[in-house]
Amino acid sequence: MALDGQTLALDAGEPRIGLFGINMGADPGSMLRIAAAAEEAGYESVWTGEHIVLPDPQAPPSPAPPETIFVDTAVALAAIAAVTSTIKLGTGIIILPQRQPAVLAKSLASLDYVSGGRLLFGLGVGYLEPEMTACSTPMARRGARSDEYLAAMRTLWSGDAVSFDGEFVRFDGVTANPKPAQAELHTIVGGHSEAAARRAVTLANGWYGFMRDLETTAADVERLRRAADEHGRPDHLGPLEISITPVRRPGPGDVEAYAELGVDRLVLQPGWHRSTDEILAYVEDHAPRP
Q: Is the Cβ–Cβ distance between 105 and 123 less than 8 Å?
């Protein structure tokens, strides 16, 4: 999805294909096999899911049973970086207000550094109150906290002997190395609210919608269009990139239909309750077309 001034101009090119949930469920060896197979098959990216803790017993709106394995995002992607060379490494998504920003800035910069600049930093503000409480994070003002955390992290990535004086984060004359390999770390905002659309349009390289069908994706695109009209798009961020995890496995014509809506990337979810062999078969069956 390209931006022309304050409006969105859609580009119906072939979407790139990613794979969601690489850190979920599978044993470590299988995780690495699946990531390597995705790279060999031509997938553009692999993506982690994230929940630091889950309510036990499961209760709405918790998305997964408490026994679900979520390998830590930085650990999983660093391991995958060691057995791959070109596939991009996406965090889908890091719940930003739950993280201490200087510590997260160090982890992400290190991950981008050791992977040769392959990180896609997906972030969101979260929605699960028991998880927020366990991470000593108030639900109130988590959006404002996220915006400030991102600004503070970018300050640490921008140079040496830097300072920041915000409501939630303060530091003075500090340096964090290594810096990310990317001159500006590629940042993607997740979420389906008006606030998420504003955050994506004004602060990020892209937006990520999870479990969206064609109808909800069309509504998402219109919401982003309104946000661009209302808030504008900083020129240095370039075109707004649209990523979608479809609500179901793409059928005949679905990839083209998402492309016509302006989707740049489809991040497919194979279902991590399946066996390793079943997931490897899914990776092969849904590989990008040459």
A: no
pLDDT tens, residue by residue, 139-156: 999 999 999 999 999 999
- Total domains in the chain come to 1
Question: What pTM, to 2 d.p., does this model score?
Answer: 0.95
Contact by Cβ (8 Å): 230, 250: no
C-alpha dihedral sign at 49, 50, 55, 61 = negative
pLDDT digits (tens, 9 = 90+) for 72-93: 999 999 999 999 999 999 999 9
- Is 150 among the domain residues? yes
Nearest CA to 90 out of 255, 275, 250, 244 is that of 244
Taking the alpha carbons of 119, 121, 127, 132 in that order, is the dihedral positive or negative?
A: positive
Domain for residue 208, yes or no? no
**How far is it, in rounded angstroms, from Cα 232 to Cα 259?**
24
